[in-house]
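Example 9 (inverse folding). The structure is encoded as follows.
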């Protein structure tokens, strides 16, 4: 656990101090109370209620079907397990793309209806006006550049972004625009490590990488991915810290066997 925010809630100031002092920021996703509680107790710096719940919780192929009501529902559950980590919530698809006023209204709704500490949205200069309007009202905003899953139909695949010179230059420019617009941090997803290093050194706000190398100020993964719960999805940037899919499968099989053999419940487990 970092010494920053050890005894109080992690804030945007905390993350800026960590970047200044070279302390790496740890972040993971959560969609439920128990996971959030375990993450918080372990000392995670930032918990993201990600629209990735559309994939790992709802079983959808993309994040696009996730709604504002669903994000708020999951955030309320997650927040009950969090006492220290900064809690950030994804603005889902079509909650901010219609313009700054709609983005502001939905960001305000999340902070009004949940104990979240800020919101995250995808895109570069096209969302700068929205970020300015949201942050002017005192709501922290995290940006997201590189591979942006809500634009999957535009990209056509989940392949790495920023490999071409023109696109790399655009991502660098967008990062600077997001900083100027008031973003407190930027997620950099699936871009070359060298490009992430250039961005990290070019802006004063923290960068959080996912598939963007070790030069970022911090890292984030989707929690079910790093726990090995989704065996069909294992891109090279995901490190398995457990293999819970097999553990759970074996546990379920053993339970079924014990029930069928009348080994469960035992006399000691009965009233």
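The amino acid assigned to each position is listed next.
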């Amino acid at each position: 656990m970092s010494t920053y925010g050890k005894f109080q809630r992690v804030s945007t100031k905390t993350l800026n101090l960590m970047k200044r002092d070279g302390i790496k920021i740890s972040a993971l996703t959560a969609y439920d109370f128990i996971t959030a509680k375990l993450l918080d107790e372990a000392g995670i710096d930032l918990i993201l209620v990600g629209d990735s719940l559309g994939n790992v919780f709802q079983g959808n192929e993309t994040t696009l079907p996730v709604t504002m009501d669903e994000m708020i529902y999951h955030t309320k559950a997650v927040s009950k397990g969090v006492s220290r980590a900064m809690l950030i919530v994804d603005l889902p698809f079509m909650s901010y793309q219609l313009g700054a006023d709609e983005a502001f209204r939905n960001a305000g709704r999340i902070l009004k209806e949940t104990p979240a500490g800020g919101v995250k949205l995808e895109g570069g200069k096209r969302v700068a006006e929205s970020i300015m309007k949201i942050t002017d009202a005192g709501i922290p905003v995290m940006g997201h550049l590189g591979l942006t899953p809500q634009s999957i139909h535009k990209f056509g695949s989940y392949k790495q972004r920023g490999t071409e010179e023109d696109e790399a230059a655009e991502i660098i420019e967008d990062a600077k625009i997001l900083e100027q617009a008031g973003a407190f941090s930027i997620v950099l997803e699936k871009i070359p490590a060298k490009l992430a290093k250039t961005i990290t050194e070019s802006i004063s706000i923290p960068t959080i990488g996912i598939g963007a190398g070790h030069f970022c100020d911090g890292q984030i993964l989707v929690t079910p991915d790093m726990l090995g719960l989704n065996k069909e999805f294992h891109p090279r940037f995901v490190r398995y810290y457990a293999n819970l899919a097999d553990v759970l499968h074996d546990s379920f099989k053993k339970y079924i066997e014990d029930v069928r053999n009348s080994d469960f419940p035992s006399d000691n487990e009965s009233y």
